[in-house]
Design goal:
Distance between the termini of chain A: 46 Å
Shape of chain A: globular
Structural class of chain A: alpha/beta
Oligomer: homodimer
Number of strands of chain A: 17
CATH class of the largest domain in chain A: Alpha Beta
Number of domains of chain A: 3
């Protein structure tokens, strides 16, 4: 089974938007053994879209189209598809009702132009879009002489909407129809060391030609290990995947924080929840990002109740009692200051742990001693296991560390928040930070 | 003059690498008035590359090919080009010497496999590669009947190498041959209404075929208006761009918060900074995201000093003095509660403004009365212009609003934080929120 991916949009051919959808879709298809013959991108131009569709249907089993099904005049994908199918566009009553319900819910009148989003070519089926107003379109294309048969899926270009629809509709179809080899995959995630260090630890596991294959990728500071197991039987593919996954875990040890969709915050959160412990935050340079990451996780109220963003020096004193002298002598970016912040956050929030961060996120504010990227992080925990009740929070044991993170403001803030989570993760494991 | 961009590589069709080259090349071409008909991507497969080349040469004036000219066995672009041209590959002596010199310089013996990188089809010209070992290829393709004429440029897929070669060789050719058409662009950003509403306001400005063209796109709740102006003279293109931009701004009014790289937080921040005013935050469901957005902006310490993440009901009382009765009677997600939160945050932070957010981010926690997506937001500002000193912060005027945002947890949190910024933006404009 093989596919062509057709992306539509002036913003793509003008280079104003980088097409990330095609790569994502390709990855998903590869994982279930469906080859991708080509990616094709054309602008919001109906004849060009029609030509691209007509040429593609003869060259693949599945044509996956994204973009051009918004409510505006420059959205022409549904019209092009109708022309290619030689079928009229018809209002789908069910989706029309969904649209009306959607606009009722958000309390706005539905603009007449939105109704086009419930129109699909006769003979086609709408694809549910849980995150937006454009229905997708699912159709089996047959040429006049019946020689060409191709399944066409049309989805919005908005990545979030497309991904949900792809997972719910396209992927199950491709999986069922794929026959052939089974490919199963797993991704292990690490944070805190570089890609080459991870590769060194993995050693021969990364040898080219090995099956299951082992490769590394990096995204937002997370070094991930991707394991692809490709065998003719599903059982064998799964068994070999487990064996190689175990070998990778053995090589990397506690550096692996999770697999597949796991995030650092979710893993730390699950560990806190299972031990009925709580964490609070006190942030300077990350400005709320650490609390945001913790609360990205649904159900985080079980272990996170409150946090402080003390961005100015004065607020560090007013909210968390960091002595002005300490700030003046050691600077706001110092282990002394984050230690005070963490202690106070833990005491005030009556939390089992508190994480604090202060750093130079840049682009300005760096000095020779504390260049941009310098970040101090502290973790406060219970000082004495024998204390009970509120006395537990009065005194804390505090571990502070200083780091220098590379990159721009966004990267430095991201890495700082992830390192804070990592410090707590290793503490919960009862192990020292390995770097 | 128009172009097709052909990218070659298994890593692209497998989705392991996102193709950023095509967008970059498109931007460069657009800036000198060369339209891009299509992007096309195929794997390291010689027949597929040949087919893509043959189909493309008849449909554009310039075919720009990247990738597949490395030294390894899976690099097949030069072979495909030779086959399409029906010409043998020949060793280019000059580039061969360059390769030998390169390897002498880095003190390594030259692997025999690298010699292929000095091979180009008879009749073609090498393109200098200052950053790598693969020569590019420049050739004027003519079909047998001389009817099809197309200039083909082949460059490496490595962005750094490609970009240098493009600037030195391809861009000057396109500029000279292009007849001087220029495309200049601008993007206006709005938040708070749907794409169809924006399109309705723009009306005839979005008519297809209009020049400058006007189209809409949506990303993370931001509805953007893209204006592309294409004229033979650069001056005219710029002048017409300004005229259409003004017409779009007139149609959308204050809904437009910024242009091009502007973010909501940066625009609100600039407005606060220029009036020397400050803002504080008190967040429940957004869990720090609003403070994070404000501090995404370098220099935000000028107007943001501190914020609270009061996730639990208890912390809303302990930190911000929200009476437990109020929470019990109206619920944590209520205008009463956010009003209290905003007042307290403003008073404690001694800020000119405070924004507070409490909502049901989901996926659980919704009820019939307050379904997932229900979010209350309040803005506290100075109650009495005649008060001075700390008395200014003792009493606040507060405006609270309730919204229902669609989507999942991440979307609801994102839209809530952006709506809070939007409420402050309109307050700073001295205008009511238009929705």
């Amino acid at each position: 089974m093989n596919a062509i991916i057709l992306s539509i949009g002036d913003e793509l051919v003008l280079g104003q938007t980088v097409d990330t959808n095609s790569a994502w879709i390709s990855q998903q298809l590869a994982a279930v053994g469906c080859g991708v013959n080509a990616h094709l991108t054309v602008g919001d131009d109906q004849p060009a879209i029609e030509q691209a569709m007509l040429e593609s249907v003869g060259r693949c089993d599945v044509l996956i189209v994204t973009g051009g099904i918004g409510p505006t005049e420059d959205d022409l994908t549904r019209q092009a598809l109708a022309a290619v199918m030689n079928a009229p566009l018809e209002l789908n009553q069910e989706w029309s009702h969904r649209l009306e319900a959607f606009f009722r819910k958000v309390g706005r009148p539905m603009p007449e132009s939105n109704r086009i989003q419930a129109m699909i070519p006769r003979g086609a089926t709408p694809i549910d879009n849980p995150n937006g107003t454009a229905a997708g379109i699912d159709v089996s294309y047959k040429s006049g002489d019946q020689k060409t048969v191709c399944r066409i899926f049309v989805m919005p270009g908005v990545p979030k909407e497309m991904k949900a629809m792809f997972a719910a509709t396209v992927l199950p179809f491709v999986k069922e129809s794929g026959g052939g080899a089974a490919i199963v995959s797993r991704t292990l995630h690490t944070f805190g060391t570089g890609e080459s260090w991870v590769a060194e630890k993995l050693g021969d596991l990364m040898k080219r030609g090995r099956n299951p294959s082992v490769g590394t990728t990096v995204s937002q500071g997370i070094v991930s290990v991707r394991i692809n197991s490709r065998f003719s039987s599903c059982d064998e593919a799964q068994r070999e995947l487990e064996t190689t996954t175990e070998a990778c875990r053995a090589a990397l040890g506690d550096l692996v924080f999770g697999a597949d969709d796991d995030t650092l915050a979710a893993i730390v959160g699950a560990s806190l929840a299972s031990s009925r412990q709580t964490v609070s935050t006190a942030e300077s340079c990350t400005g709320g990002l650490l609390a945001k990451m913790l609360t990205d996780v649904a159900g985080s109220s079980a272990y996170f109740t409150q946090g402080w963003v003390t961005y100015s020096n004065k607020s560090k004193y007013e909210r968390l009692g960091v002595p002005t002298d300490v700030i003046n002598v050691y600077g706001a970016v110092s282990e002394h200051v984050v230690e005070h912040m963490a202690r106070s956050a833990r005491r005030l929030a009556k939390a089992d742990f508190a994480l604090s961060i202060s750093g130079v996120a840049g682009p300005t504010g760096g000095s020779a001693q504390k260049p941009v990227g310098t970040v101090c992080i502290a973790l406060a925990s219970q000082a004495d296991e024998n204390l009970h009740g509120d006395a537990r929070y009065a005194a804390s044991a505090v571990a502070a560390r200083s780091f220098t993170f590379p990159g721009d403001r966004e990267m430095i803030r991201d890495r700082a928040a992830k390192m804070a989570l990592t410090m707590l993760r290793f503490h919960l494991l009862g192990k020292p930070l390995p770097f």
